[in-house]
């Protein structure tokens, strides 16, 4: 098993570095670091936030390690995530979405995390839920989930896409979507309920709510909130990721005006306000 992992790692330099790094410190490192999770839902900037945190010299931040178990024991994954670390690492964490793992929602990971009273929870939210749903629907339609500053686009299966970022942005028609009033109401209620449910689940933990909109408008102060929360010095954050759909809602939602009229006077009307 270990030989097979090593062969696979050698074929992928980034995997090799990660593999060897963990092997080197799994026995001789330390475990006196803060443990944290970035809690949230898809399409709220979590990949961006994880990359910003991981650029800090004292933070080791990973992605969706509980996306799917594929027959693995969740405890093994958790133990490997919170294994011994090099001396410079003072905080270790990963992101996890409300309904993960998608192939075994009752595996026990959530009770385990809730039992970890010193687990620090960074609850990432987006004030405008409509923006989240728009991003999700466009991603499903285009099969593109992220973009980097090097104009590299990646699809949902994390393969490169033969399309430049500039061409992607120009293809407005290919990214326009529609919603029904009923589906939006259902999604608004579901996502709002999940946010409240998980705030309650972790109410006895150290918890910090961060909004995507604030990260975009005032990045350094928001990252400083997180580093203070983790007891670490501020470090200028860096990330290779860029926003996939920077246009206004009215540009990308084909039936935006009719939806805005339907939601006028409802508790959700503010989602249709544009600057």
Structural notes for this entry:
- The structure is a single chain.
- By secondary structure, the chain is of the alpha/beta class.
- It has one domain (31-272): Rossmann fold, CATH 3.40.50.
- 44% of the residues lie in helices and 14% in strands.
- Strand 5 (144-148) and strand 6 form a beta hairpin.
- The radius of gyration is 20 Å and the shape is globular.
Written as H for each helix and E for each strand, in order along the chain, the element string is: HHEHEHEHEHEEHHHEHHEHH
Assign the structural class, choosing from mainly alpha, mainly beta, alpha/beta, alpha+beta, or little secondary structure.
alpha/beta
Q: Give the fraction of residues assigned to helices.
A: 40-55%
**Could you name the CATH topology?**
Rossmann fold
Kindly state the mean pLDDT as a whole number? 91
Describe the sheet with the most strands. Answer: 5 strands, parallel
Summarize the structure.
This protein is of the alpha/beta class and 275 residues long. It is 44% helix and 14% strand.
């Amino acid at each position: 098993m270990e030989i097979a992992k090593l062969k696979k790692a050698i074929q992928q330099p980034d995997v090799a570095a990660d593999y060897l790094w963990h092997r080197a410190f799994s026995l001789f490192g330390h475990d006196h670091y803060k443990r944290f999770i970035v809690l949230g839902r898809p399409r709220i900037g979590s990949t961006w936030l994880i990359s910003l945190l991981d650029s800090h010299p004292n933070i080791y931040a990973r992605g969706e390690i509980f996306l799917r178990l594929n027959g693995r024991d969740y405890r093994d994954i958790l133990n490997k995530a919170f294994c011994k670390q090099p001396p410079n690492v003072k905080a270790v964490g990963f992101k996890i979405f409300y309904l993960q793992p998608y192939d075994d929602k009752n595996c026990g990971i959530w009770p385990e995390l809730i039992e970890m009273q010193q687990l620090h929870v960074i609850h990432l939210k987006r004030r405008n839920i409509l923006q989240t749903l728009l991003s999700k629907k466009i991603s499903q339609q285009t099969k593109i989930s992220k973009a980097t500053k090097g104009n590299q686009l990646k699809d949902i299966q994390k393969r490169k896409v033969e399309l430049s970022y500039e061409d992607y942005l120009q293809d407005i028609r290919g990214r326009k979507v529609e919603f029904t009033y009923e589906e939006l109401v259902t999604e608004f209620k579901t996502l709002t309920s999940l946010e409240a449910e998980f705030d309650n689940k972790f109410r006895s933990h150290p918890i910090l709510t961060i909004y995507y909109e604030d990260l975009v408008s005032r990045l350094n102060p928001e990252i400083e909130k997180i580093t203070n929360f983790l007891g670490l010095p501020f470090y200028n954050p860096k990330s290779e990721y860029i926003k996939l759909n920077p246009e206004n809602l009215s540009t990308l939602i084909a039936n935006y005006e009719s939806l805005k009229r339907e939601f006028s006077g409802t508790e959700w009307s503010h989602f249709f306000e544009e600057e």
